[in-house]
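The aim of this short unit is practical: by the end, you should be able to scan a pair of folded records and say something sensible about each. We start with the first protein, listed as its amino acid sequence and then its C-alpha cells.
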Amino acid sequence: MKAVERAKLVRSLRQESRRLRLLVLVIGFFLVTLTFVIVSKPDALLFNLNGRLSVDQAPRSLLIRQRVDADDAGSRRSADTLAAAAEDPKVVDDDNAAKEAHANTRDVIAPTLLFTTGASEEEKRVLTSEPEQGKMMEDTASGGEDEEGSKVLLEGHQEHQEHKVTLPTVSNYTIRDAAEDSDNGKQEDGKTDSEIKLAMAVAQSNGRDRSHQPALDNLEWDKPLCDFSNFRANVCEMRGNIRIHPNGSSVMYMEPAGSNRDEQWKIKPYPRKGDELCLSHITEVTVQSSKVAPECTKYHDVPAVIFALTGYTGNLFHDFTDVLVPLFTTASEFNGEVQFLITDMAIWWTRKYAVVFEKLTKYPLIDFNKDTEVRCFKHAIIGLHAYMEFTIDPLKAPHNYSMVDFNTFMRRTYSLPRDSVTALGEIPKTRPRLLIISRQRTRMFLNLKEIVAMAEEIGYEVVVEEANVNSNVAHFAKVVNSVDVMMGVHGAGLTNCVFLPHSAILIQIVPWGALDGICRIDFGYPAEQMGLRYKHYSIGVHESSLTDQYPMDHEIFKNPLAFHKNGFEFVRQTFMDTQNVRLDCNRFRPILLEALDQLNQ
C-alpha cells in the first residue's frame, strides 16, 4: 500500500510540475509579446494592414511652407502640466524642423500617387513606375458630365500619435449684438490654477463633460494656431478670445497681456493641398495672434467652422471627397451646435445638399465673403479634417469616426429604410436587385441590353439609372438603397455607394489603361471601409473601344503604363474621354455569380 501511495504522490508531483512549467511558459510568452507590441508601435503596423504602402518619410517638397513671421519661441509648447495634457503634433515648417519634431516619432505615410500638370517631370517619372500605389481620380468631362480636373501629385497619410483634450462645446446657442450685452465677450474670472488643472484632468478622462466648461474656457491656448503637417489639408484650430473679421479675410486670436506669441498663417480652407490650380480660386484667410482687433459686433456661444465650396465641387465625387466627408469628420462631434462660415459660397450647392447641412448644424449658413460683422467665438476651426481620397482615417479623426459612421450618417440623413442587405431566401420569391450605373458620354456600356439580359438570366432583378450632376440626390439615394448589388464603369456615379445598405456589393469596372491603382483608391478602399463588399473587374483589350481607334500592335495595348509619364491630362484624354466598354458577358458572368453566392452567406 505504501508503494502505491508513493507512486500516486510521485505522479501528482510530476503533474503539478508540468502545470507550473506550462504556466511559466504562457506568462513568459505574454510578456515577450507585450514588449514587442509596445516597442514596435502598433498604430503604424495596423495602418499597414489596410493594404497601402508605408514609407518612413514624406517628400519634403510637399510640405508647403506657409507660416509667416512666426516667432520660434512663441510657437513652442510650454513644459507645464497643462501643455503636456493638451499636446498636439508640431507644425512642420522646414526640413530641420521636421527632423527635430520627429526625432522620437515614427511617421507612417500611406501615399496616394496622383497626377497633376503642376508636378515636375521627375516626380511624374518616379510615381508612374508603380501604378498600384495609386493615382488620381480621373472622372473628367466637360459641361454637365463628370469634371474632376487636375489633382495633387502626392497625398500622404502621416501618422501622428496625438494626445488631444476634447473640450466640451456650449449648448443653447445664441447670437448677440455687442450693444445688447457688452459683457458677453468676457470670460469667467475667479478660477484658480488648481481648479483649472482639475477641470482639464477631468475633461481629459471623461471626454465631453459640459460641467467643466467654465474652467476650461479660461485656459490659454499655447499650441501653434495652425497645423500644416497633413498632406491633404491645412487646418487651424484655437480656443479662447477669437474674432473673425470677414471684411479683412482674417481670424484673430486675442493674446492675453504678457504673451510673447507672434504667429501669422495663410490658409485656403479647401482640402486639396498642393493643387494650385484648384486653390487659385479659393479665398485666402489670414490666421494670426494679435493684441489689437476690431470690436465684436456679434457674439457666438458655439464653435465656428470655416471652409470653402468652390474648388472642384459640382462633380459628385468631389462633392463628397472634398466637402461632405471632411465636413462630417470635422463637425459631427458638435451635434449640430456649430456655426458654419463658408468662403466662396455656392448657393445652388448648399440647396442641393440642404438636408446634410440640416443634420450637421442647427444654424443658418453664413456667407463669409459677404458678411460685414466682426464675429466673436471661443472655439474656431479653419479648414476641414481630410485624409485620403473619399475616406476617413479613424486613427486621426475625432472620436475615431470611420467611413462606416459616414455611411450610416448618409442613410439617416436621407431617411433610407435599409441598413443592411437581406440574405437571399428570407423573403420568398424575391430576386436580388442589381443597379447598373449607365453613362451617356464617356465610358459607356456599348452592349447594355446584352448585360441586362445576362444578369436577369442568372437571377437578378435589374435596374438601370444614370447618375450625373443634375440627378436628384434624394431620389437616387432611395434607388441605390433599394438594391443589393451596384455596378458601373469607374466614374463619379459610383460615389452613390454611400447610400448602399451595409454588406451590399459594389462592382467597379476598370477601363483599359493601367488604371487599377486609381480605381482601388477612389472607390475600392472606401467601399470596404464603409462595410461594403467590393469586386474589381479590369476589362481586357477586346472589351475596349480603343481597338476601334488603334491597331492591335499599338503601344497603347502593349504597354499602357508608359503613357502615364505624360501626366494625368494625357491619361484622361487617352483612356477615359474617348474610351467605352463592350463588356464580355461570358468573362464577366462569374463576377455576378460570385456576388449571388456572397448574398447567400
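Turning to the second protein, read its sequence before its C-alpha cells, just as you did above.
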Amino acid sequence: MCGQKLGTVLATNLLWMVFAASEDLKIEVGPSSRVAAHIGGSIKLTCTVTGCEAPTFSWRTQIDSPLGAKMHTQGTKSTLTMDPVGFENEHSYLCMAACGSKKVERGILVELYSFPRDPEIEMSGPLILGSPVTVTCKVPKVYPSERLEMEFWKEGSHHPEKLHEIVEDAEGNLETKGLKMVFTPTMEDMGKSLTCEAKLPMDELEFEPKERRTTQILQVNIVPKNTIISITPSNTVQEGDSVTMTCSSEGLPPPQIFWSKKRDSEDPLPLSENATLTLVGMRKEDSGTYVCEAKNQFGKSRKEVEVTVVKPLTVEISPGPKIVAQIGDSLALTCTTVGCEAPFISWRTQIDSPIAGKAHNEGTKSTLIMNPVGLKNDHFYLCTASCGDKKVEKGVQVELYSFPRDPEIEMSGPLILGSPVTVTCKVPKVYPSERLEMEFWKEGSHHPVELHEIVEKAEGNLETKGLKMVFTPTMEDMGKSLTCEAKLPIDEMEFEPKERRTTQILQVKVPPKDTRLLAFPSDSVKEGDAVTISCTSADIPKSQIILRKKTEMGDRELEPTDGIYNIHAAQLEDAGLYECESKNEGGSEVRSLILDVKEIPKYFSPQLLALYCLSSLVIPAVGMVIYFARKANHKGSYSLVDALKSKV
C-alpha cells in the first residue's frame, strides 16, 4: 500500500513539473481593451495571468500619472477599482505581471462619459389659464456636453414656441444643459404633453442609454370666479328659525368652499367647509355678515351676505349636562349666551368651592379650562349669565375616572428554560381603584399559577394595582401567551374603554447545549494538510458561534462561516489550543481542542521519499527473481512465466 501511494505521488509530481515547464506566461484584461466609464459611477479593471501560480502584478497609466484607483490582488488575478470614477481616470491603464524572469503586460483604455438621468422638466409656476409660464428642460451633469443633442416641444402646437438654450455649471467639467420656452396656457392645452428628448450619440463608446426622454402632461388651472350666494328663506330670520345659505363658484381644480362670519376687529369665525351652511335655532347674536370664500391652490373669490336675527337671553353649556373626564387629561366647558350683546358671565361650583380651572371670557362666550383634570375638579359646575336685570344659569356635572393605559406585563428577567421567573401585571393610575377587576393567566396552564395582589401609590389618590405570579418556564411554554385583563365596570359613567387587555407571547430561551468542536480529518495533521474546524450547537434561539485561537499574545478571534473554519494548508503556527464559545440570551457553553501540526523535515523531499519506497519494492523483487532462477536451475531451465504461474 505504501509503495502504491508513493508511486502515485511521484507520478503526480512528475506530471506537474512537465505541465509547468510547458505552459507559457499569458495575460488577459477585462472587461475589454476599451472601456466606457460613467463619471461618478464605479468600474473594475481585471488582469488575469495563466502559466504562473504566484505572479507579481503592478498597474500604471501610460503617462505615469496617479492611478486614482485601488488595487487588489488575489492569486493569479489583480483588480483595479475606480469608485467613484472621475476625470483623473481618463487614461490608458497598463497591467504588468511578472513570474520569475518572465514579464507580460496588457493595456486597457478608459474613456469617460456622463449621462446620468432623464431630462428634467421644470416650470416657473403652476399653469394658470391666461398667465404666461416659463418651462425649462435640463439634462444634468453631461459629459462631453458639446456632444449633447436636445429637442423640446409641446404636443399639438401649430406655432412652435421659440426655444432658448441654457447652460449651468456643475461639478468639475460637467455641465447642465437645456432648453426653455415661454407660453401662455389655454384650455386647449389641457391634457396635452410636453416632451423633452436628449441624445448623447457617441457611437465609438459602448454604453446605454444614449437617448433619454421625459414627458409631462399639462394640467391647466383656473382661479375661482363668478362666486354666488343663495339664501333660504331670506336674510331676515325670526328668533328660533333656521336659515340655509348655499355658495357656488367656478374654478379648476374645483374650488373648496369656506364659510365664516365677520367679527369686529378680530379674525373671521370659521363655520363650515361645505357649500351649504345651515344655521338652526337662530339667536340674536347670530346676526351679522356671513362670508363665502371659494379657494383653490391658485387663487380665491369671495361673496358676502347680511343676516339679521332677534333673540332672548339664554345660556347653554357644552358639553353637558353631564361630562365624564379622565384624570390627567384636559377639559374645556363652554358657556354660550344669546340674547345679549355684552353679557357678564361667571363660573362657580354648586358648593362654592374653588373652580380649579381658568375661565376665559370672549363676547357672549366663556370657556372654563381644566388642565390637567384632577380630583379637585369632581363637582357640579354652574355658568351664570347676566344682562341688565336679566340673569340665567345652567349647570353641568363633571365626573372623574382614571384608566389611562393597557395593563403592563413585566418580567424579573429573561425566560430561561428551568429558571424561575416572577411576572407582574400592573394597571397604572386607576381611579376609583376599588372598582378595578383583574385576571392574569398563562395559556394552557393545567395547574393554575398562584397569584398575589400588589398595590403601589401614585399621584394624589391614584393607585397602581396589579397581580404577580412565579413560574418555571418549560419548552411547552414556548409560543404560549400571558394574558392580563383589567376592567373598570362603572356602568353609571359613559367612557371607553372600560375593559383593557394585554397579551404577551412567551419566548423561552434555551442555554446552549451539545456544543461540539471537531477537527476534520483529525486533530493531528502534517504540515501542509487541509484542516476543517467545525463548531455546532443545538439551542433556541440560535447561538452566536465565537471561535478563538489561544496564543501567548492573547486570544485571536477567527471568522468561521456557519460554524466552519477552514485551514487550507496547515502551518506550524496553526497548531495550538482552539476554543469555541456558543452564546445566546440563555447563557453560553465553551468547548476546546488541541490541534497538532507535525513538521515535515525540509531535507526529506517528495522525490527522495519516492526513491526510498521504490527501493523498498525493488529489493524484495530482486530476491524473488533470484529464488525462481535457482528453482529453475534445479529443473535444468528457467521461465519467468512458469515461475509466476507456479505462484498462482
